[in-house]
Design a protein that fits this description.
Blueprint: H1 3-31, E1 49-54, E2 63-64, E3 72-73, H2 75-86, E4 90-95, H3 98-102, H4 105-108, E5 114-115, H5 123-126, E6 129-131, E7 136-145, E8 160-164, H6 168-176, E9 181-185, H7 188-196, E10 202-206, H8 207-216, E11 220-232, E12 235-237, H9 242-258, H10 260-268
Helix pairs in contact: 2-9, 2-10
């Protein structure tokens, strides 16, 4: 074979190889799906999943529930599950401490996409957190033993009053429970046992949470409630989740309009 024929033969072989490679690539592309995973546009921590951070337990908003797919239920969790379904997402829940959640530290770390923990929208928190539209009004309350003799916040002088650290309940008690000794706890999971053990004389916290204790144990009663003109909101890392926040606001409005929100509200928050 001449040198010219050899070069020509090699060129033909290279062309054929490229053509076959092109056919193989085209066949592979035809058989694959380029469809993005649900929620890709929201920059989720896990594709197709709305990752929720919450301080549990905090009934009736957050409750451990082995019968639920996520392992949790409650007003916040059920509402977010319905919202996630609107967005074609599943939901996962992580139990975290409230203080680093309300400060925004956990959200900025990317540990979860959203915070849902009966968190009151305040100007102080808005400096570090973006909030959804309000989804329920906030009301504080005072829970005491029925035989305590305490009838109002004015009777707390010299009493030990349990509050959850970093909450608006703590702020309200600091401003209004004159002479009381405030005892900070991480959450209701510590507050309620402390009350039952006699370590504190009263609990000042969100009304729905105290209402659960009042209904479950007749030895305790709510003696006062305190309007705060505040509301709860779902929390997001500051400036990082605008698309997700807008989608959740839209889904929340749809659930309010179609009656689903009211059904969830009646199950957990309506007086019975």
């Amino acid at each position: 074979m001449t040198r010219r024929n050899l070069i020509a033969g090699l060129a033909l072989m290279a062309t054929a190889t490229l053509a076959l490679a092109g056919c193989a690539t085209g066949s592979s592309d035809a058989g694959s799906s380029d469809a993005p995973a649900a929620g890709d546009e929201y920059g989720l921590a896990e594709a197709g999943t709305l990752s929720v951070c919450s301080d549990v337990p905090y009934p009736p908003f957050e409750i451990e529930d082995t019968s639920s797919e996520s392992g949790y239920s409650g007003f916040d969790i059920d509402l977010l599950t319905a919202i996630a379904e609107k967005l074609d997402l599943k939901i996962s829940v992580q139990d975290v401490a409230f203080d680093p959640l309300q400060s925004g530290a956990i959200l900025v770390s990317g540990q979860c996409d959203i915070g849902a923990s009966a968190m009151t929208i305040t100007e102080e928190r808005k400096a570090n957190i973006d909030f959804s539209d309000p989804y329920v009004d906030s009301l504080q309350s005072l829970l005491v033993r029925t035989d305590s003799g305490i009838e109002s916040i004015d009777d707390l002088d010299g009493k030990n009053v349990g509050v959850q650290q970093g909450t608006t309940g703590e702020s309200y008690a600091t401003e209004n429970a004159k002479g009381a000794q405030l005892v900070q706890y991480g959450g209701d999971g510590e507050l309620w046992p402390a009350m039952q053990a006699g370590q504190i004389d009263a609990i000042l916290q969100d009304q729905p949470v105290n209402y659960v204790h009042e209904q479950e144990n007749s030895d305790y009663k709510i003696v006062e409630t305190y309007p705060t003109d505040e509301s709860y909101g779902f929390a997001f890392a500051k400036g990082e989740k605008d698309e997700l926040r807008e989608a959740i606001n839209k889904a929340l409005k749809e659930l309010q309009d179609d009656g689903t929100y009211q059904e969830i509200y009646d199950e957990y928050l309506a007086a019975k």
